[in-house]
Amino acid sequence: MTVATEKKLPFDWPTFAYIASIHLVALLAFLPNFFSWSAVGVALIMHWVTGGLGVTLGYHRLLTHRSFQVPKWLEYFFAFCGTLSAQGSVIDWVGLHRIHHKYSDNSPDPHDSNKGFWWSHMGWMLHEIPAEKDIPKFTQDINSDPVYQFLSNYFILIQVAFGLFLYAIGGWSFVIWGVFVRLVAVFHCTWFVNSATHKFGYQTYESKDHSRNCWWVALLTYGEGWHNNHHAYEYSARHGLNWWELDITWMTIRFLEILGLAKNVKRLKT
Predict the structure, then answer these.
(1) For this UniProt entry, which segments traverse the membrane (predicted)?
(2) For residues 83 and 78, what is the distance between their CA atoms, to the nearest angstrom?
(3) Contact 233, 260 (CB under 8 A)
C-alpha cells in the first residue's frame, strides 16, 4: 500500500532574492550614520500610508471585497499607496486573497494555515503555487484596467522613484528607514494576518476555518487582526464588531462616508 505525498512545489528564487535583499538592506538602520528621528518619523508615517491606507483599506477592503465604493480617482490613489508597499502586483494581490477566502484553510488556499505558521506567514510566497494560474479568473473586474496594469507592471520602478525622492529631501537615512525598514515592517504586519490570526486569539463566529481575532495583529494592521469577524462576514467594511475591537480602518472609512466620498458602505445587519 502506498501513501500519496504532496507534490513538492518549485522554489521561487527571484522572490526569495527580492525579499531577502530588502531585509538585508534594512539592517543598515542599526548603523548610527543612518539614524535620525526624522527618518523614523518618515517610516512611521509611510507605514500608515502604505500599510494602512494602501494595503488594509485599498487592496483589501476596497478592491478585494468591495465593501464600499469611492470615486475612481480616490480608488486609484489608495491602490497607488498599496503599490508603495512593494507586495507585488496589485492584481495578483487581489486575486490571491479572493482565492484565500474561497478556500480558506483548505489545500487550494495559497497560505493554508494547516501547513504551519512558517508556510502561512511567508513560505508560500517562496514557491510557485498552483493558485497563481487562477488569478485572471478571480480578478476580471480589475485585470483589464490600464491603471492597475501599470501599477502591477511597474511597482518596483515606482518604489525606486519614491526612494529617489526621499534621498533628495533627507539623504540615505530617509531611504533606509522610509523605504527598507518600513517595507520590512509592512511586510510582516501584512503576513501576520495570514499566519498569526489563523493561530492566536479567540473565535466569536463559526467561519468554517481557523481564523481568529487577535488584538495585537489588529493594532499593527489598523484593524485587520479581527480576522474571525472578517471571515464570518467578509464583505463587511467594519472588522472590529465589538466595542473593544479597535478598527482604525473602519474609522477612516466612516470619515470618508461622512465627507460623502465613501458610498454603499456594507455593514453587518444585526
Answers:
(1) 12-31, 37-59, 147-168, 174-193
(2) 9
(3) no
Q: How confident is the model at residue 270, as a pLDDT?
A: 53
The pLDDT value recorded for residue 268 is: 86
Q: Which residue has the cell 537615512?
A: 173
Q: Which residues lie closer than 8 Å to 180 by C-beta, 6 or more apart? A: 22, 25, 26, 28, 29
187: CB partners within 8 A, 6+ apart: 19, 22, 85, 87, 122
pLDDT along the chain (270 residues), means of 10: 57 96 98 96 98 98 98 98 97 97 93 96 95 96 97 97 98 98 98 97 94 98 97 96 96 98 89
At residue 269, the pLDDT reads 72
Dihedral (Cα; 84, 85, 91, 92), 10-degree rounding? 150
Helix spans in 27-153 (H):
37-46, 72-83, 90-102, 117-121, 135-138, 146-153
Can you tell me whether residue 227 is helix, strand or coil?
helix
- The pLDDT of residue 3: 36
